[in-house]
């Protein structure tokens, strides 16, 4: 069986607020990659529930954080089709993404 590892490194300030997030993966080559935010969700088989880690750096602008959330919902819509073939649920999630994107576009135009 082939194994792959993903490693995250979080640099924290004195108040334990993330200043930098880096990651590497055995399947992504030897380079270290940097991110402004991560959102990890795991289905815990023992607790039969979702375990989450949400982190973002100090330099992550609010507008980018909102887009990050919308992108995550869009990714979950693709995931639900692939995993379950539930096209109706995916369509509803995509519709929400469209609505939220339009909302964010209006917010950005008002700035």
From TrEMBL:
InterPro entries: Motility-assoc_prot_GldC
The organism's place on the tree of life at top rank: Bacteria
Protein known as: Gliding motility protein GldC
């Amino acid at each position: 069986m082939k194994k792959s590892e993903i490693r995250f490194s979080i640099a924290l300030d004195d108040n334990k607020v993330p200043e930098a997030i880096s990651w590497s993966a055995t399947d992504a080559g030897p380079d270290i990659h940097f991110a402004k935010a991560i959102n990890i969700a795991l289905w815990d088989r023992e607790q039969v529930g979702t375990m989450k880690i949400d982190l973002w750096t100090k330099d992550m602008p609010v507008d980018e954080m909102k887009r990050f959330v919308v992108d995550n919902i869009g990714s979950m819509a693709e995931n639900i089709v692939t995993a379950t073939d539930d096209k109706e649920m995916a369509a509803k999630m995509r519709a929400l993404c469209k609505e939220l994107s339009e909302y964010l576009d209006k917010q950005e135009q008002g700035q």
